[in-house]
Amino acid sequence: MQLKIIIPILLSTLLVSTTSFAANKIDPNKITYSLTKDEIIKQLGWVQTNENRCGGYYIEAPFSFPETLTNKKLIQITSNELLFAQRGTSIGQGKVTISRYGQQIVANKAFLYRDPTTGKLSSIELVDHVILREPNSLVVANNGYFNLQTRAESLHQILYRTTVYSTPHYKAPLPNIFELQHERKVYQLSAWGKADAFVQDKPKIYEFEQASYSTCPPTAMAWQLAASHIELNKETGHGSAKNAKVLVKGIPVFYTPYISFPIDAQRKTGFLWPTIGSWSTLGPSVGTPFYWNMAPNYDMTITPAYLSKRGFQLSDLFRYLSPNTRGSFDVEILPYDRAFADFKTDEQAEFGHDPRPVKQGELNRLLNASNTRQAINILNKTHFNDHWSSNIDFNYVSDDYYLKDIKNDFDQVTQNQLLQLGEAFYKGQNWNFIGRIQAYQTLHPVDENVYFRNQYTRAPQLVLNGDYPNRPGGFEYFINNEATYFDIRHNPGLEIKQPIGGRLNTQPGISRPFNLPYVTVIPRLQVALTQYELGNVTNHNFHRDEFGHLNHHIPLHPNWDELGHFNHHIPLNPNGDELAHFNHPNPQDPSRVLPIFDVNTMLYFDRYINFMNYNFRQTLEPQFYYTLIPYRNQNNLPIFDTTVNTLTYDQLFVYNRFSGIDRINDANQLAMGLTTRFIDQETGAEKLKAGLGQIVYFRERKVTLCQNRFDPNCPPGTTDFPNDPENKKTLSPLSGVLSYTVNPNWAATANSIWNPQTRHLDNQSITLHYQPYGTQKIVNLGYNFVRDGDQLPGESRNSSASNLSSTDLSFNWPFKRDWTAIGRWTQNWNHNHFQNLLYGLQYDSCCWAIRFVTGRAFTGLSPSNTFQYNTQFYMQFALKGLGTVPVYGGDPTQLLNNNISGIQNNFGRDF
Length: 911
Fold this sequence. Notes:
Shape: elongated
Structural class: mainly beta
Number of helices: 7
Radius of gyration: 37 Å
Distance between the termini: 46 Å
């Protein structure tokens, strides 16, 4: 006969210590420690299968709960036999079950103790094969103790299992009464092990003495943690162990007196795994990051590091997040760089007698740089309300060599322009506003053979745009306004006095869209009103001396370019004069008034077709775009932020071929394009898109970016001069675009520019992407060609030597269960060198993972025109449920994300 006792939990009764069990002097026979491997598998509920990567799952037996236990303040005690005592101790035998909502304890025998003062049941002592069960957790023990008032419990000589979580702040919901009463499969990552004792004083906090811990399946124990004390806190998502050693295949490989590790992805203050590596610029190095979880919405990582070639470095990364803003502040400082001091001496010996003024200017910057080196990065995005927002992206380094020497990001080719940007935005129904301050820190390393000019700063730039569509009569009124002040820093070694000053542009316009069946016509009229207020301008005739300096009296040497390099391909001025005369009539306050008229005509036809047993809606979309802009001589206007746009299919239907407003082209031209799409009738997905277009010019273009190649304000590499033959042609190159989704796994895109006059391709890019849905099998293959897009110093334009021809192959390929190959190979075929070479191997099983990644990246040319590379190696090890260890070189996750399109890097994590 089974007896039942229903006990309400009284929190005011006497608390009984969990050490009272030891006072009873029960000598356990250590059943759990004598279990065989097969018995452990059976006790834990492991079921072997091939349906997942772990090779099995844990089975949760049903909980036998009456509906009354939905009241979480009730405890039910049942027993096959019960020796009941009104006072003193009651004894239950057979199957003794203690049940409450979400927990159940079963034992072969139990002693029920009463509070001597109140006479109410206060604690239970459990003997012989004790089983404690909670949803997703199991403890099998020889004996134990349960306090009815505090709900604290302790078990001895145990075998345990409990789930751990990989998703931040994820807490498994407590199953409802129906789910608890049915068998369930647990696929989630689970930890298990043995222990001398188990104590649970608080819900979701488990403590083990003389215990082991592993997340591997019980059939394949790859690793385990053995410690004198282990605590798993499912409330905070962290575990800790004292006197811990890590065993791999039973062999100790690591010991620590204390270790803290995550059992989910929540954050916790403490030291992270050290980063160990060796780099050619830093030498053998080690960093010990300390993570400070300051609050739920902001944290800080402080990393002291020792760089054997340079000295001690301190870095600090502060991150913050709120409902309206997010950002970070990252600062690094190296108080004294020994290698940098030696580098100064070496470069002075090499370039101290170089006659080129550019090299002398760069050398002086190096010698004046401090040996204390710093870097700062500030990012911030704030959303104030529905109308106002802001953005900050500020980057700074203390010298021209910091990125090459200290920042060892393998995927980052050395940057020579560091953005310093602050913006404020307003978006309204009819008006949009942008307030911007933008500058660039330009780096000028003396040991490179490429010269980077300083960029103009915009301080400030104010943009106000208004748009009023659907006005009476169907008209649309709009206006674009911009006021900007431009300044520029002196370029080291170049005696070029570049203009500075303010630019005001206002551009009102009116349009009247006509929407007819199958056709839309949008005529538009604008007027560009531009006014400058300039400084640093003259009306003199300039000449260049033999070193490229502007000089009023010295003739130009025909074999020196503006950087002081010998070059036999630089022509004299267009008239062939012995002196390079050119006239800058630049007045102090030049202005421009220019009407702009265009008409955009778009037609739309469609039909339903069946192709290869698929139903598609095919569209045919012709487009005609006519532009009429009169010629205005704009040679007296400076070039602050304007370049020539690269021709693409979309660029055909833009009225200005220049990117900025310092130049607005003259035009009498018609752009024609034809686009067709195939749209799946069932899914609405675009199967194919193809477009082809060209511009017909009715007159030659007279407005050019620069007057001639000797213009000191002309951007380097510009070929858009009055004598440029491209501006005299009646037809533009043909521009084509293609995107094709072959099937759910394959997608292809292509862009091409074909020059009908030369019958050559000017630009071409082709990309193939393969990724079956729901898998990490990824292949990206690309080809890129740009005519005159890879000109090295000393090479002439319009020759095959200056063309860019490159391929890009990247992949992430699981070739066997748990094994993945990763790689990227970008090859420059024109100059026969690789841009990036990355490869690695990753093993990621259900409980541990390891990966090796290595490669080289092209960083630039040395003064002797040899190719320079940055080499890196990474080794990372992960014990799932214990943490990820960057054994060598740091964490390559960001590197792989930047280099392999489509990859989702979950190394060391199971979801």
